[in-house]
Amino acid sequence: MKPTTKDLARAAGVSLATIDRVLNDRPGVTFKTKNAVEEAIRKLGFERNHAAAALSRNRYFKFIFALPSARGDFVMQIKRSVEEIESKGFGTMMRYEILDIDETAPHDVATTLSKLDRNDCDGIAIMAIEHPEIRDAITRLTERGVPVVSLVSYQSAANVSAFVGIPNFHAGQTAGRLMLRFQEHPTGSIAVMTTTISSNDSVERRRGADLIFSTQNEFRLLPTTEHFNDPHRADDIVRKLIKNTPDLRGIYIMGSEARLPVEAIKRYVTDHDLVVIAHELTEFTKGQLTSGTLDAVISQDAGHLVRSCVRRLKAINQGTTPILSQEQVRIEILIKENTQSQ
């Protein structure tokens, strides 16, 4: 039998009312009495019912999703998933907030994070580039007692509690393998585009693709180009690739936002033998799979990402361990033929 509050009161030599005050961090308890109760908790192995405790305090867990302010298709999908769990009451005694951050202004992101503490929220899930200022702001945020989970792109140098997303190195390997398998030419060049290589997901995906291409000599992976969410830059990159790379056989779009590169590809590419692979299934990329502009999309479920962030942050607050098999985000490979039910 698990020890009850009555057992706890008996072991500590105090009343049930005092136990309630200590467990719910209410005033009116001396330091000596509080220590006696905490010692009894340790000896008996008493486990708190955190949901009941939150209910008794009439207190909600509040989790913040810090997401890029750029209105990309995939980011908007994540935001809709946050709004969905808020409207459907996912989890008891929990509230959610979306915080827009400008990834092009790391100093501003760091300043925003520096203003947050435990009075503002019980945890943050952040999707951001790796930058020294952001890294330090995240570390200081955790030092103030706010748990931080990195979302989609791992903050490898910051003090984060967990990462939620697909293993990006393996996703890059998957893209590289598919790119070679889909080729109808014996040799050639493969271009690589992304929003910014400052984002760790792109770094890891590039490493994975490099490993696959290093095992053969027929195709070469070109240096990564960055479009920085600038439509003119994306257009210019694709136009020059087509003009200056006569043996171009494929384009790998590594970033989570594929719209700008794909729209440029549609303007300049007439060779249907060109293999194009992108990341993240959105309404846009689904349409491009159907039309044949994209050959494959490597994806992760936005709803799963959001729910996993919540479960992990809740577990950290409650001192419990999440079910890791439940939190594993799968790499999904999607082609024209298997997206009809998505």
Verbal overview:
With 342 residues, the chain is an alpha/beta fold. The protein has 3 domains: 44 residues, 434 Repressor (Amino-terminal Domain); 134 residues, Response regulator (Rossmann fold); 132 residues, Rossmann fold (3-Layer(aba) Sandwich), CATH 3.40.50. The protein is built from 14 helices and 11 strands. The strands form 2 sheets. It has a 6-stranded mixed β-sheet with strand order 7-6-8-9-10-11, with helices on both faces. A 5-stranded parallel β-sheet has the order 2-1-3-4-5, with helices on both faces. Helix 5 links the parallel strand 1 and strand 2. Helix 1 crosses helix 2, helix 1 crosses helix 3 and helix 5 crosses helix 13. The protein is elongated and about 85 Å long. The mean pLDDT is 90.
Would you list the SSEs in sequence order as H and E? HHHHEHEHEHEEHEHEHEHEHEHHE
Q: What's the average pLDDT?
A: 90
Counting helices, strands and paired strands, the structural category is alpha/beta
Q: Please report which band the strand proportion falls in: under 5%, 5-15%, 15-25%, 25-35%, 35-45% or over 45%.
A: 15-25%
CATH fold description of the largest domain: Rossmann fold
Number of discrete domains? 3
The CATH superfamily title of the largest domain: Response regulator
The overall strand count is 11
Radius of gyration: 25 Å
Shape: elongated
Question: What is the strand arrangement across the widest sheet?
Answer: 7-6-8-9-10-11
